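Researcher: I'd like a structural prediction for the single chain below. Treat it as a standalone chain; there are no partners to consider.
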Amino acid sequence: MSPYRTTLYILIVMIFLMMVACAQKRPVLYPNYHLQQVGQSVAQADIDDCIQKARNYGAQENTGERIAKKTAEGAAVGGAAGGAAGAVAGRSGRSAGAGAAGAGAGTLTREVIRSGDPDPIFRRFVEKCLRKKGYETIGWR
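Model: Treating it as a single chain, here is the predicted structure.
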């Protein structure tokens, strides 16, 4: 397979992973008395309200910023390791580039997969808001 085709294939896979991972996780509610009284449609509106309140009060998810930072860190480490390994073989420039690309792609993939997880502060904010409304959160999906 040519380097161009390999790069194109990796790019397509990365775009697909980013699209899948961008789906925001939402709280899952325990079917307590309050939920049974108000019903699913009111509960979903209350979840939306709590998520919006969390955003308004500064509890941001910042997943894109975190992904960019972690990818840059991974690429830097991979570039340093590749350069060191390449120096022994006499090809430090090419090895540094390969190491940076490989580590950057690996880190990007890992972080994109994790990106659907809400920030811990954002999650606690939403859960506390829902608890005050009478709901019990059992997880996020």
